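Duplicate of #3305? Posting structure anyway:
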Protein backbone atom coordinates (compact mmCIF):
# COMPACT_ATOMS: atom_id res chain seq x y z
CA UNK A 1 0.00 0.00 0.00
CA UNK A 2 1.37 3.35 -0.98
CA UNK A 3 2.53 5.53 1.90
CA UNK A 4 0.51 8.72 2.22
CA UNK A 5 1.44 11.57 4.55
CA UNK A 6 0.00 15.04 4.73
CA UNK A 7 1.87 18.05 6.09
CA UNK A 8 -1.06 20.32 6.67
CA UNK A 9 -4.79 20.30 6.59
CA UNK A 10 -6.64 22.40 4.06
CA UNK A 11 -6.95 26.00 5.09
CA UNK A 12 -9.36 28.70 4.00
CA UNK A 13 -8.63 30.09 0.57
CA UNK A 14 -7.28 33.62 0.30
CA UNK A 15 -7.71 36.06 -2.51
CA UNK A 16 -4.96 36.34 -5.02
CA UNK A 17 -2.84 34.08 -7.12
CA UNK A 18 0.21 34.02 -9.33
CA UNK A 19 -0.12 35.32 -12.87
CA UNK A 20 -0.74 32.60 -15.41
CA UNK A 21 2.21 31.15 -17.25
CA UNK A 22 2.89 32.02 -20.85
CA UNK A 23 3.54 29.09 -23.16
CA UNK A 24 3.81 28.49 -26.91
CA UNK A 25 0.65 28.34 -28.96
CA UNK A 26 1.37 24.81 -30.16
CA UNK A 27 -0.35 21.84 -28.54
CA UNK A 28 2.82 19.78 -28.27
CA UNK A 29 4.49 22.52 -26.20
CA UNK A 30 1.92 22.59 -23.43
CA UNK A 31 4.30 20.69 -21.16
CA UNK A 32 7.44 22.61 -22.14
CA UNK A 33 9.62 24.49 -19.66
CA UNK A 34 8.04 27.67 -18.30
CA UNK A 35 8.74 30.74 -20.40
CA UNK A 36 10.29 33.89 -18.95
CA UNK A 37 6.86 35.06 -17.85
CA UNK A 38 6.06 31.91 -15.85
CA UNK A 39 5.75 32.51 -12.11
CA UNK A 40 7.65 29.27 -11.39
CA UNK A 41 10.24 29.76 -14.11
CA UNK A 42 13.93 28.90 -13.72
CA UNK A 43 16.66 30.08 -16.05
CA UNK A 44 20.40 29.77 -15.88
CA UNK A 45 20.54 33.53 -15.78
CA UNK A 46 18.36 33.68 -12.68
CA UNK A 47 20.65 31.27 -10.87
CA UNK A 48 23.80 33.18 -11.85
CA UNK A 49 23.51 35.89 -9.18
CA UNK A 50 21.68 36.38 -5.93
CA UNK A 51 20.42 32.84 -5.49
CA UNK A 52 21.39 32.91 -1.86
CA UNK A 53 23.13 29.52 -1.81
CA UNK A 54 24.76 26.80 -3.85
CA UNK A 55 22.67 24.49 -5.99
CA UNK A 56 23.71 20.90 -6.21
CA UNK A 57 23.82 19.73 -9.83
CA UNK A 58 21.49 17.04 -11.06
CA UNK A 59 23.02 13.63 -10.71
CA UNK A 60 23.58 11.65 -13.94
CA UNK A 61 20.63 9.43 -14.64
CA UNK A 62 18.29 11.40 -12.38
CA UNK A 63 14.72 10.12 -12.55
CA UNK A 64 12.70 11.64 -15.35
CA UNK A 65 9.66 13.69 -14.34
CA UNK A 66 6.44 11.66 -14.22
CA UNK A 67 4.42 11.55 -17.43
CA UNK A 68 1.57 13.83 -16.44
CA UNK A 69 -0.85 15.81 -18.52
CA UNK A 70 -3.62 18.37 -18.22
CA UNK A 71 -6.68 16.74 -16.68
CA UNK A 72 -4.68 14.26 -14.59
CA UNK A 73 -6.08 14.07 -11.06
CA UNK A 74 -4.07 13.59 -7.88
CA UNK A 75 -5.68 12.10 -4.76
CA UNK A 76 -9.03 12.21 -6.60
CA UNK A 77 -9.02 15.92 -5.85
CA UNK A 78 -6.32 18.03 -7.51
CA UNK A 79 -6.92 18.28 -11.28
CA UNK A 80 -3.84 19.45 -13.18
CA UNK A 81 -4.55 22.34 -15.55
CA UNK A 82 -1.29 23.80 -16.88
CA UNK A 83 2.40 22.97 -16.54
CA UNK A 84 4.37 26.11 -15.67
CA UNK A 85 7.81 24.57 -14.99
CA UNK A 86 9.52 21.31 -15.92
CA UNK A 87 13.07 21.19 -14.61
CA UNK A 88 15.60 18.69 -13.26
CA UNK A 89 13.18 15.86 -12.56
CA UNK A 90 10.28 17.85 -11.10
CA UNK A 91 7.41 19.84 -12.56
CA UNK A 92 5.17 22.63 -11.26
CA UNK A 93 1.51 22.97 -12.24
CA UNK A 94 -1.48 25.21 -11.93
CA UNK A 95 -4.29 22.94 -10.72
CA UNK A 96 -7.84 23.00 -9.35
CA UNK A 97 -8.83 21.68 -5.94
CA UNK A 98 -12.18 20.14 -6.92
CA UNK A 99 -13.17 19.59 -3.31
CA UNK A 100 -12.96 23.27 -2.34
CA UNK A 101 -13.35 24.58 -5.91
CA UNK A 102 -10.31 26.82 -5.93
CA UNK A 103 -7.07 27.17 -7.86
CA UNK A 104 -3.89 25.77 -6.30
CA UNK A 105 -0.28 25.24 -7.28
CA UNK A 106 1.36 21.80 -7.24
CA UNK A 107 5.03 20.72 -7.29
CA UNK A 108 5.46 17.06 -8.40
CA UNK A 109 8.50 14.78 -8.43
CA UNK A 110 9.08 11.02 -8.36
CA UNK A 111 9.16 9.41 -4.93
CA UNK A 112 12.60 7.94 -5.69
CA UNK A 113 14.05 11.35 -6.62
CA UNK A 114 17.16 12.20 -4.61
CA UNK A 115 15.46 15.34 -3.24
CA UNK A 116 12.02 13.87 -2.51
CA UNK A 117 12.68 13.42 1.23
CA UNK A 118 14.06 16.93 1.66
CA UNK A 119 11.14 18.44 -0.27
CA UNK A 120 8.61 16.71 1.99
CA UNK A 121 10.50 17.84 5.08
CA UNK A 122 10.68 21.43 3.85
CA UNK A 123 6.97 21.44 3.02
CA UNK A 124 6.06 20.13 6.47
CA UNK A 125 8.19 22.75 8.18
CA UNK A 126 6.81 25.57 6.04
CA UNK A 127 3.21 24.45 6.64
CA UNK A 128 3.73 24.43 10.40
CA UNK A 129 4.89 28.06 10.37
CA UNK A 130 1.39 29.25 9.37
CA UNK A 131 2.50 32.87 8.81
CA UNK A 132 0.02 34.64 6.45
CA UNK A 133 2.87 36.66 4.96
CA UNK A 134 3.98 33.49 3.17
CA UNK A 135 2.10 31.61 0.45
CA UNK A 136 0.81 28.69 2.48
CA UNK A 137 1.59 25.03 1.89
CA UNK A 138 -1.79 23.26 1.92
CA UNK A 139 -0.80 19.63 1.43
CA UNK A 140 2.33 17.45 1.20
CA UNK A 141 1.68 13.93 -0.08
CA UNK A 142 3.58 10.79 -1.02
CA UNK A 143 1.32 8.52 -3.07
CA UNK A 144 1.59 6.14 -6.04
CA UNK A 145 5.35 6.64 -6.48
CA UNK A 146 4.87 10.43 -6.50
CA UNK A 147 5.66 13.20 -4.07
CA UNK A 148 3.71 16.40 -4.51
CA UNK A 149 3.36 19.64 -2.57
CA UNK A 150 0.17 21.72 -2.89
CA UNK A 151 0.28 25.45 -2.17
CA UNK A 152 -1.94 28.51 -2.47
CA UNK A 153 -2.51 30.12 -5.88
CA UNK A 154 -3.13 33.86 -5.65
CA UNK A 155 -5.00 35.15 -8.71
CA UNK A 156 -4.93 38.85 -7.81
CA UNK A 157 -1.26 38.98 -6.75
CA UNK A 158 1.45 40.44 -9.00
CA UNK A 159 5.10 39.43 -9.01
CA UNK A 160 7.73 42.05 -8.26
CA UNK A 161 9.21 41.12 -11.65
CA UNK A 162 6.02 42.27 -13.38
CA UNK A 163 5.78 45.44 -11.27
CA UNK A 164 9.33 46.45 -12.18
CA UNK A 165 8.73 45.90 -15.89
CA UNK A 166 7.02 49.30 -16.05
CA UNK A 167 9.52 51.17 -13.86
CA UNK A 168 10.93 51.40 -10.32
CA UNK A 169 8.61 51.48 -7.31
CA UNK A 170 7.55 54.64 -5.50
CA UNK A 171 9.58 55.24 -2.30
CA UNK A 172 6.63 54.35 -0.08
CA UNK A 173 6.01 51.07 -1.95
CA UNK A 174 9.72 50.15 -1.82
CA UNK A 175 9.78 50.97 1.92
CA UNK A 176 6.71 48.79 2.58
CA UNK A 177 8.13 45.93 0.53
CA UNK A 178 11.48 45.95 2.39
CA UNK A 179 9.76 46.29 5.77
CA UNK A 180 7.21 43.51 5.26
CA UNK A 181 9.64 41.06 3.58
CA UNK A 182 12.32 41.62 6.24
CA UNK A 183 9.85 41.13 9.10
CA UNK A 184 8.47 37.95 7.52
CA UNK A 185 11.93 36.45 6.96
CA UNK A 186 12.99 37.38 10.50
CA UNK A 187 9.99 35.43 11.81
CA UNK A 188 10.87 32.46 9.58
CA UNK A 189 14.49 32.36 10.73
CA UNK A 190 13.38 32.42 14.36
CA UNK A 191 11.67 29.10 13.55
CA UNK A 192 14.77 27.77 11.80
CA UNK A 193 13.46 28.25 8.24
CA UNK A 194 15.33 29.91 5.38
CA UNK A 195 14.28 30.73 1.84
CA UNK A 196 17.59 30.80 -0.10
CA UNK A 197 15.79 31.66 -3.38
CA UNK A 198 14.33 35.05 -2.45
CA UNK A 199 14.11 36.63 -5.92
CA UNK A 200 11.71 39.07 -7.66
CA UNK A 201 9.79 35.99 -8.85
CA UNK A 202 9.15 34.89 -5.26
CA UNK A 203 7.78 38.22 -3.98
CA UNK A 204 4.13 39.08 -4.68
CA UNK A 205 1.98 42.14 -4.01
CA UNK A 206 -1.72 41.48 -3.47
CA UNK A 207 -4.55 43.76 -4.52
CA UNK A 208 -4.77 45.05 -0.93
CA UNK A 209 -1.14 46.21 -1.03
CA UNK A 210 0.24 43.42 1.16
CA UNK A 211 3.52 41.72 0.20
CA UNK A 212 3.73 37.93 0.35
CA UNK A 213 6.56 35.43 -0.17
CA UNK A 214 6.18 32.09 -1.93
CA UNK A 215 8.40 29.05 -1.87
CA UNK A 216 9.74 29.29 1.70
CA UNK A 217 12.19 26.38 2.12
CA UNK A 218 10.39 24.36 -0.60
CA UNK A 219 11.84 26.12 -3.66
CA UNK A 220 15.39 25.66 -2.38
CA UNK A 221 14.72 21.99 -1.55
CA UNK A 222 13.34 21.33 -5.04
CA UNK A 223 16.59 22.62 -6.55
CA UNK A 224 18.99 21.23 -3.96
CA UNK A 225 20.16 24.67 -2.77
CA UNK A 226 21.93 24.91 0.57
CA UNK A 227 23.92 27.58 2.41
CA UNK A 228 26.25 27.65 5.41
CA UNK A 229 25.04 31.19 6.22
CA UNK A 230 21.30 31.14 5.49
CA UNK A 231 20.50 34.36 7.37
CA UNK A 232 23.24 36.25 5.54
CA UNK A 233 22.04 34.82 2.20
CA UNK A 234 18.41 35.87 2.74
CA UNK A 235 19.45 39.33 4.01
CA UNK A 236 21.55 39.93 0.91
CA UNK A 237 18.62 38.79 -1.23
CA UNK A 238 16.35 41.37 0.46
CA UNK A 239 18.99 44.02 -0.26
CA UNK A 240 19.01 42.99 -3.91
CA UNK A 241 15.19 43.21 -4.03
CA UNK A 242 15.25 46.73 -2.57
CA UNK A 243 18.04 47.76 -4.95
CA UNK A 244 16.01 46.51 -7.93
CA UNK A 245 12.84 48.21 -6.64
CA UNK A 246 14.63 51.57 -6.42
CA UNK A 247 16.66 51.45 -9.64
CA UNK A 248 14.98 48.90 -11.95
CA UNK A 249 18.47 47.34 -12.22
CA UNK A 250 19.85 44.06 -10.87
CA UNK A 251 22.78 44.77 -8.49
CA UNK A 252 25.17 42.36 -10.18
CA UNK A 253 26.91 42.32 -13.56
CA UNK A 254 24.66 39.69 -15.12
CA UNK A 255 21.13 40.48 -16.29
CA UNK A 256 18.43 38.57 -14.40
CA UNK A 257 14.66 38.50 -13.89
CA UNK A 258 14.10 40.80 -16.85
CA UNK A 259 16.35 43.48 -15.31
CA UNK A 260 19.59 44.81 -16.74
CA UNK A 261 22.68 44.24 -14.60
CA UNK A 262 25.19 46.86 -13.57
CA UNK A 263 27.92 47.89 -16.04
CA UNK A 264 30.91 45.60 -15.87
CA UNK A 265 34.15 46.68 -14.14
CA UNK A 266 32.32 49.41 -12.18
CA UNK A 267 31.35 47.35 -9.19
CA UNK A 268 28.44 47.88 -6.85
CA UNK A 269 27.39 51.52 -6.65
CA UNK A 270 24.68 52.99 -4.48
CA UNK A 271 21.16 53.23 -5.95
CA UNK A 272 21.14 57.03 -5.67
CA UNK A 273 24.17 57.03 -7.98
CA UNK A 274 22.30 54.93 -10.54
CA UNK A 275 19.16 57.06 -10.74
CA UNK A 276 18.48 60.61 -9.71
CA UNK A 277 15.92 61.38 -7.03
CA UNK A 278 16.13 58.08 -5.14
CA UNK A 279 15.35 58.21 -1.41
CA UNK A 280 18.67 58.53 0.39
CA UNK A 281 17.68 56.41 3.39
CA UNK A 282 16.42 53.50 1.25
CA UNK A 283 19.54 53.67 -0.91
CA UNK A 284 21.72 53.39 2.19
CA UNK A 285 19.57 50.55 3.54
CA UNK A 286 19.96 48.44 0.41
CA UNK A 287 23.73 48.90 0.50
CA UNK A 288 23.89 47.82 4.14
CA UNK A 289 22.19 44.55 3.21
CA UNK A 290 24.21 43.83 0.05
CA UNK A 291 27.64 42.17 0.20
CA UNK A 292 30.66 42.10 -2.10
CA UNK A 293 32.96 39.24 -1.17
CA UNK A 294 31.82 39.36 2.43
CA UNK A 295 32.23 43.11 2.99
CA UNK A 296 29.44 45.62 3.19
CA UNK A 297 29.15 48.09 0.37
CA UNK A 298 28.23 50.92 2.74
CA UNK A 299 30.97 53.04 4.27
CA UNK A 300 28.83 54.99 6.72
CA UNK A 301 26.76 52.39 8.54
CA UNK A 302 27.43 48.91 9.86
CA UNK A 303 26.25 46.05 7.62
CA UNK A 304 23.03 44.15 8.25
CA UNK A 305 23.80 40.45 8.32
CA UNK A 306 20.45 39.04 9.43
CA UNK A 307 16.81 39.88 8.63
CA UNK A 308 16.38 40.83 12.31
CA UNK A 309 19.10 43.49 11.99
CA UNK A 310 17.49 44.72 8.79
CA UNK A 311 14.13 45.09 10.55
CA UNK A 312 15.83 47.12 13.30
CA UNK A 313 17.55 49.35 10.74
CA UNK A 314 14.23 50.00 8.98
CA UNK A 315 12.49 50.83 12.28
CA UNK A 316 15.18 53.45 13.01
CA UNK A 317 14.50 55.20 9.70
CA UNK A 318 12.00 58.06 9.48
CA UNK A 319 8.74 56.59 8.24
CA UNK A 320 8.09 57.19 4.56
CA UNK A 321 4.50 58.23 4.09
CA UNK A 322 2.42 57.47 1.01
CA UNK A 323 2.01 60.25 -1.54
CA UNK A 324 -0.89 62.57 -0.97
CA UNK A 325 -3.92 61.59 -3.08
CA UNK A 326 -4.90 64.08 -5.73
CA UNK A 327 -8.53 65.15 -5.81
CA UNK A 328 -10.31 67.04 -8.54
CA UNK A 329 -12.38 69.85 -7.07
CA UNK A 330 -16.07 69.52 -8.01
CA UNK A 331 -17.65 72.43 -9.85
CA UNK A 332 -18.93 75.12 -7.53
CA UNK A 333 -22.61 74.68 -6.80
CA UNK A 334 -24.58 77.87 -7.44
CA UNK A 335 -27.52 78.27 -5.12
CA UNK A 336 -30.71 79.59 -6.67
CA UNK A 337 -32.37 82.71 -5.31
CA UNK A 338 -35.16 80.59 -3.88
CA UNK A 339 -32.65 78.39 -2.01
CA UNK A 340 -30.85 81.49 -0.72
CA UNK A 341 -34.04 82.34 1.20
CA UNK A 342 -36.66 85.08 1.00
CA UNK A 343 -36.18 85.47 -2.78
CA UNK A 344 -32.69 86.83 -2.81
CA UNK A 345 -32.36 88.15 0.73
CA UNK A 346 -29.66 86.69 2.92
CA UNK A 347 -30.90 83.69 4.91
CA UNK A 348 -31.13 84.30 8.64
CA UNK A 349 -28.64 82.54 10.88
CA UNK A 350 -29.99 80.31 13.65
CA UNK A 351 -30.35 82.11 16.96
CA UNK A 352 -30.50 85.62 15.50
CA UNK A 353 -33.51 87.76 16.47
CA UNK A 354 -35.26 88.80 13.32
CA UNK A 355 -37.36 91.99 13.09
CA UNK A 356 -41.06 91.42 12.46
CA UNK A 357 -42.07 93.11 9.20
CA UNK A 358 -44.90 95.67 9.59
CA UNK A 359 -48.30 94.66 8.13
CA UNK A 360 -49.28 96.22 4.84
CA UNK A 361 -51.36 99.41 5.20
CA UNK A 362 -55.15 98.81 4.90
CA UNK A 363 -57.17 100.16 2.04
CA UNK A 364 -58.69 103.10 3.87
CA UNK A 365 -59.57 105.33 0.91
CA UNK A 366 -62.95 105.40 -0.94
CA UNK A 367 -61.30 103.76 -3.96
CA UNK A 368 -59.93 101.01 -1.80
CA UNK A 369 -63.31 100.26 -0.29
CA UNK A 370 -64.90 100.06 -3.76
CA UNK A 371 -62.19 97.72 -4.91
CA UNK A 372 -62.78 95.38 -1.96
CA UNK A 373 -66.53 95.20 -2.72
CA UNK A 374 -65.83 94.48 -6.39
CA UNK A 375 -63.46 91.65 -5.57
CA UNK A 376 -65.94 90.16 -3.12
CA UNK A 377 -68.71 90.22 -5.72
CA UNK A 378 -66.55 88.49 -8.29
CA UNK A 379 -65.66 85.74 -5.80
CA UNK A 380 -69.33 85.15 -4.95
CA UNK A 381 -70.22 84.94 -8.67
CA UNK A 382 -67.37 82.51 -9.35
CA UNK A 383 -68.43 80.25 -6.52
CA UNK A 384 -72.02 80.22 -7.74
CA UNK A 385 -71.01 79.41 -11.32
CA UNK A 386 -68.72 76.61 -10.18
CA UNK A 387 -71.42 75.08 -7.99
CA UNK A 388 -73.93 75.11 -10.85
CA UNK A 389 -71.44 73.41 -13.27
CA UNK A 390 -70.60 70.75 -10.68
CA UNK A 391 -74.27 69.94 -10.08
CA UNK A 392 -74.99 69.76 -13.81
CA UNK A 393 -72.08 67.35 -14.32
CA UNK A 394 -73.30 65.05 -11.54
CA UNK A 395 -76.85 64.95 -12.95
CA UNK A 396 -75.48 64.15 -16.42
CA UNK A 397 -73.39 61.28 -15.06
CA UNK A 398 -76.41 59.76 -13.29
CA UNK A 399 -78.42 59.78 -16.53
CA UNK A 400 -75.81 57.57 -18.38
CA UNK A 401 -76.32 53.78 -18.50
CA UNK A 402 -74.26 51.59 -16.20
CA UNK A 403 -72.49 49.76 -19.05
CA UNK A 404 -71.07 53.03 -20.35
CA UNK A 405 -69.46 53.65 -16.97
CA UNK A 406 -67.91 50.21 -16.97
CA UNK A 407 -66.36 50.41 -20.43
CA UNK A 408 -65.28 54.03 -20.68
CA UNK A 409 -61.52 54.58 -20.39
CA UNK A 410 -59.19 57.41 -21.28
CA UNK A 411 -55.88 57.47 -23.08
CA UNK A 412 -54.25 59.12 -20.13
CA UNK A 413 -55.44 56.32 -17.83
CA UNK A 414 -54.09 53.63 -20.15
CA UNK A 415 -50.71 55.27 -20.28
CA UNK A 416 -50.60 55.74 -16.55
CA UNK A 417 -51.23 52.05 -15.80
CA UNK A 418 -48.38 50.71 -17.94
CA UNK A 419 -44.68 50.78 -16.99
CA UNK A 420 -42.61 52.97 -19.28
CA UNK A 421 -39.63 51.08 -20.73
CA UNK A 422 -36.26 52.07 -19.34
CA UNK A 423 -33.99 53.85 -21.84
CA UNK A 424 -31.09 51.84 -23.24
CA UNK A 425 -27.75 53.49 -22.53
CA UNK A 426 -24.17 52.60 -23.45
CA UNK A 427 -22.00 51.19 -20.66
CA UNK A 428 -18.58 52.74 -20.28
CA UNK A 429 -15.70 50.24 -20.13
CA UNK A 430 -13.15 51.01 -17.39
CA UNK A 431 -10.61 48.33 -18.38
CA UNK A 432 -10.12 44.90 -19.92
CA UNK A 433 -7.68 42.02 -20.14
CA UNK A 434 -7.45 38.68 -21.92
CA UNK A 435 -8.97 35.59 -20.36
CA UNK A 436 -6.55 32.68 -20.87
CA UNK A 437 -8.20 29.41 -19.92
CA UNK A 438 -5.41 27.31 -21.42
CA UNK A 439 -2.26 27.85 -23.43
CA UNK A 440 -0.88 31.27 -24.24
CA UNK A 441 -2.55 34.69 -24.63
CA UNK A 442 -3.49 36.00 -28.06
CA UNK A 443 -2.58 39.71 -28.22
CA UNK A 444 -2.64 41.31 -24.78
CA UNK A 445 -1.40 44.70 -26.02
CA UNK A 446 -4.28 44.97 -28.50
CA UNK A 447 -7.13 44.51 -25.98
CA UNK A 448 -7.78 48.30 -25.62
CA UNK A 449 -8.36 48.47 -29.39
CA UNK A 450 -11.71 46.76 -28.90
CA UNK A 451 -13.21 49.79 -27.12
CA UNK A 452 -11.09 52.76 -28.26
CA UNK A 453 -13.78 54.05 -30.65
CA UNK A 454 -11.59 53.43 -33.72
CA UNK A 455 -12.84 50.56 -35.95
CA UNK A 456 -9.53 50.56 -37.83
CA UNK A 457 -7.72 49.11 -34.79
CA UNK A 458 -8.32 45.48 -33.80
CA UNK A 459 -7.62 42.76 -31.28
CA UNK A 460 -6.65 39.60 -33.20
CA UNK A 461 -6.62 35.96 -32.22
CA UNK A 462 -3.89 33.66 -33.44
CA UNK A 463 -4.43 31.38 -36.42
CA UNK A 464 -5.54 27.86 -35.41
CA UNK A 465 -5.42 24.62 -37.40
CA UNK A 466 -8.59 23.15 -35.86
CA UNK A 467 -11.92 24.76 -36.63
CA UNK A 468 -14.40 26.22 -36.88
CA UNK A 469 -15.07 24.95 -33.33
CA UNK A 470 -11.99 25.32 -31.15
CA UNK A 471 -10.31 22.20 -29.77
CA UNK A 472 -11.13 21.92 -26.01
CA UNK A 473 -8.14 19.67 -25.38
CA UNK A 474 -5.77 22.41 -26.51
CA UNK A 475 -7.63 25.71 -26.20
CA UNK A 476 -11.36 25.66 -25.36
CA UNK A 477 -11.79 29.28 -26.35
CA UNK A 478 -10.36 32.77 -26.43
CA UNK A 479 -11.78 35.96 -25.02
CA UNK A 480 -11.57 39.19 -23.07
CA UNK A 481 -12.89 40.12 -19.61
CA UNK A 482 -14.24 43.69 -19.43
CA UNK A 483 -14.42 45.79 -16.27
CA UNK A 484 -17.19 48.41 -15.94
CA UNK A 485 -15.79 49.88 -12.72
CA UNK A 486 -18.98 49.01 -10.81
CA UNK A 487 -21.87 46.60 -11.12
CA UNK A 488 -24.02 47.23 -14.19
CA UNK A 489 -26.91 45.38 -15.83
CA UNK A 490 -25.92 44.38 -19.36
CA UNK A 491 -28.79 44.10 -21.83
CA UNK A 492 -26.84 43.61 -25.05
CA UNK A 493 -23.39 43.59 -26.64
CA UNK A 494 -22.57 44.62 -30.22
CA UNK A 495 -19.34 43.34 -31.77
CA UNK A 496 -17.68 44.47 -34.96
CA UNK A 497 -15.72 41.59 -36.52
CA UNK A 498 -12.99 41.64 -39.16
CA UNK A 499 -13.48 38.21 -40.73
CA UNK A 500 -16.71 36.71 -42.07
CA UNK A 501 -17.45 33.23 -43.40
CA UNK A 502 -18.09 29.86 -41.78
CA UNK A 503 -19.38 30.97 -38.41
CA UNK A 504 -18.25 32.83 -35.29
CA UNK A 505 -19.69 31.61 -31.97
CA UNK A 506 -19.50 34.05 -29.05
CA UNK A 507 -21.02 33.96 -25.54
CA UNK A 508 -21.30 36.52 -22.72
CA UNK A 509 -20.61 35.46 -19.13
CA UNK A 510 -20.90 37.39 -15.86
CA UNK A 511 -17.87 36.70 -13.66
CA UNK A 512 -16.62 37.75 -10.22
CA UNK A 513 -13.17 38.99 -11.27
CA UNK A 514 -10.86 39.54 -14.21
CA UNK A 515 -8.70 36.55 -13.24
CA UNK A 516 -8.27 33.67 -15.68
CA UNK A 517 -8.19 31.23 -12.75
CA UNK A 518 -11.98 31.44 -12.47
CA UNK A 519 -13.30 28.60 -14.68
CA UNK A 520 -15.90 29.40 -17.32
CA UNK A 521 -18.13 26.66 -15.93
CA UNK A 522 -18.58 28.63 -12.69
CA UNK A 523 -19.68 31.83 -14.48
CA UNK A 524 -23.24 32.98 -15.21
CA UNK A 525 -24.11 32.76 -18.92
CA UNK A 526 -25.89 35.89 -20.13
CA UNK A 527 -26.43 35.12 -23.83
CA UNK A 528 -24.81 33.80 -26.99
CA UNK A 529 -25.00 34.08 -30.75
CA UNK A 530 -23.51 32.63 -33.93
CA UNK A 531 -22.86 34.74 -37.01
CA UNK A 532 -21.30 34.39 -40.46
CA UNK A 533 -21.03 38.14 -41.06
CA UNK A 534 -18.89 41.01 -39.85
CA UNK A 535 -20.98 41.83 -36.80
CA UNK A 536 -22.60 40.05 -33.90
CA UNK A 537 -25.29 41.16 -31.48
CA UNK A 538 -25.83 39.32 -28.22
CA UNK A 539 -29.06 40.09 -26.35
CA UNK A 540 -29.47 39.29 -22.66
CA UNK A 541 -32.94 38.00 -21.79
CA UNK A 542 -32.56 38.39 -18.04
CA UNK A 543 -30.00 41.08 -17.19
CA UNK A 544 -27.70 40.26 -14.28
CA UNK A 545 -25.83 42.95 -12.34
CA UNK A 546 -22.11 42.33 -12.67
CA UNK A 547 -18.95 44.41 -12.73
CA UNK A 548 -17.05 41.97 -14.98
CA UNK A 549 -18.27 40.39 -18.24
CA UNK A 550 -16.38 37.83 -20.32
CA UNK A 551 -16.74 37.86 -24.12
CA UNK A 552 -15.88 34.25 -25.00
CA UNK A 553 -15.25 32.92 -28.55
CA UNK A 554 -15.58 29.15 -29.02
CA UNK A 555 -15.73 28.95 -32.83
CA UNK A 556 -13.84 30.99 -35.42
CA UNK A 557 -14.19 31.43 -39.22
CA UNK A 558 -11.52 30.44 -41.73
CA UNK A 559 -9.51 33.33 -43.18
CA UNK A 560 -6.54 33.59 -45.52
CA UNK A 561 -3.09 34.64 -44.41
CA UNK A 562 -2.13 38.28 -43.95
CA UNK A 563 0.72 40.31 -42.54
CA UNK A 564 -0.25 39.38 -38.99
CA UNK A 565 -0.84 35.62 -39.16
CA UNK A 566 -1.00 32.67 -41.53
CA UNK A 567 -4.18 31.19 -43.01
CA UNK A 568 -6.37 29.31 -40.56
CA UNK A 569 -9.30 29.69 -38.20
CA UNK A 570 -9.09 33.12 -36.62
CA UNK A 571 -11.06 36.26 -35.80
CA UNK A 572 -10.47 39.91 -34.92
CA UNK A 573 -12.66 42.37 -33.01
CA UNK A 574 -12.76 45.88 -34.43
CA UNK A 575 -15.07 47.49 -31.89
CA UNK A 576 -17.28 46.32 -29.03
CA UNK A 577 -20.08 48.17 -27.22
CA UNK A 578 -22.18 47.17 -24.22
CA UNK A 579 -25.61 48.62 -23.52
CA UNK A 580 -27.63 48.40 -20.33
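Output from current build:
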Amino acid sequence: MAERSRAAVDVADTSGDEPLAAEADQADQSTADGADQNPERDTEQDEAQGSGGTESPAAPGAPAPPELHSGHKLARRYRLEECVTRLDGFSSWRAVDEKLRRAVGVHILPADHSRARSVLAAARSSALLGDPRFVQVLDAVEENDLVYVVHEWLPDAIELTTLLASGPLEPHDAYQMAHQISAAMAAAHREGLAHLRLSPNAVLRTSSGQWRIRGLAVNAALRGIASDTPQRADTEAIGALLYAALTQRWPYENDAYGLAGLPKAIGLIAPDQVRAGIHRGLSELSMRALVNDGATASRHESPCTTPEELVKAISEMPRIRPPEPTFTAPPEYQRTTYQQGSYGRQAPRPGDTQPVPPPPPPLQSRTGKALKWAVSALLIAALGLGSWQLADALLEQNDKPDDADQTQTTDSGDKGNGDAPKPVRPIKIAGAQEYVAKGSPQATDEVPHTYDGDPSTTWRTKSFVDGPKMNPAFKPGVGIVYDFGSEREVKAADLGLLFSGDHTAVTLYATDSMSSSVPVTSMKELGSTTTSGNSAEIKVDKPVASRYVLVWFTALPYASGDEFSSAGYKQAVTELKFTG
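Confirmed duplicate; merging threads. Residues 366-399 form the longest helix (34 residues). Residues 1-52, 54-59, 336-345, 401-418 have pLDDT under 50 and may be disordered.
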